[in-house]
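Shift notes (night). Ran Trk system potassium uptake protein TrkA while the centrifuge was going.
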Amino acid sequence: MKILILGAGQVGGTLAENLANEANDITIIDSDSARLRELQDRLDIRTVQGEASYPTTLRQAGAEDADMLIAVTNSDETNMVACQVSKLLYKTPTTICRVRASAYLAKSELFYQRDQTKDLDSLRGFPIDVLISPEHLVTKHITRLIENPGALQVLEFSKGLTRLVALRATRGGPLVGHELSYLRTHMPKIDTRVAAIFRKDRAIMPEGNTVIEDGDEVFFIAAGDHIKSVMSELQPLVKPYKRIFICGGGNIGQRLAHTLENRFQVKLLERSHERCVMLSENLRKTVVLEGNAANKDILLEENIENTDVFCAVTNDDEANIMASLLAKRLGARKVLTLINNPDYVDLIQGGDIDVAISPQQTTIGSLLTHVRRGDVVNVHSLRRGAAEAIEAIAHGDHRSSKVVGKRLDEINLPEGTTIGAIVRRSEVLIAHDHLRIQPDDHVILFLVDKTRIREVEKLFQVGLTFF
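Came back to this:
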């Protein structure tokens, strides 16, 4: 595919790296010449310096024959206008736009939906095929972690019917120290599959005789209502969370408080007086506090030692890290920390900070969903981009498809790839060798090595005989 990426920041640069490694023709536009040189020295991509929304800049970048435009600059307005210019002047087939401001997102009539009209001349609103809101994605990610105590990552497929969960196996869990085959004996009524195990950052492909060790990062897949039962096998049962403390009242902090306040006791700490006034007017049950989270006295005064989850979600990585470390030392049970700089994530997660959340990786997974070949409806980037989980729909018949009509043990999967589950007409079928894939099945795969993604995509592409 020929793809234009507008914006060479963290998301744009990481996305360019992901897509360039998969043999796409990538051009990235930005006004920062130094950043563009840095990316061009490292990646096999083309760069164009200029204002991303200008028609001349887009034409210079090749918008006339581009398959897709992905606008992820730091300006919502630039992203929206660039999509409109590219669609109207250059008839770009697919435009994807990142919009952060809730003032825009609250007005859905500003954006037309892809299927509402095919007549570009009659469009009303910004012609954006796919709207991405990082704040919305990060809020959903944090909410799922709070709803599933003990999880490092919780990913949904097929509208929540099935979930892929990552957690740290700890001493005291019934399965720790046993072979995986013991899980079926111990829980005969619950079907689940371990998709991958990471031990000291090394991937282990799970077999029946694989022994779970203390400290293993285990990815397992199960129907949504079986998740908590399986988690209890890998770590001692964690009590449900009740008290949530949010540090930072920006877009993410406000969204998170609004999402949680009806089910949890929520406190939100924000240093700006004007922002506190606005938050207290818009949040119904959340206790809004004014102050600095780095102030030990404020945290002690608010009984931080009784807090179940401390979420640091300001725009300042260093402030998030320091506030999280302080909260943990003062007795907070679990600490979730928003980290924008991807270089920090590996450094801090797993120590005093329980889970480091990267908005870039959360956003990129959503973007990759629309870039993958074949009918891919869900992509989740895992392990800081090294691994990937995808949901693909099987089409065709036994003549035109490499997967339809075949038993799972007959499919020639790339090395390091496992099929975790199949969703068939709202029924979750955990993957076992005897299952046959049928047309329109949603197949959930886990890739330890994401460089094999092209081979997986080819498996789900329909041959010409189908047409």
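The longest helix spans residues 76-90. The first strand starts at residue 2 and ends at 6.
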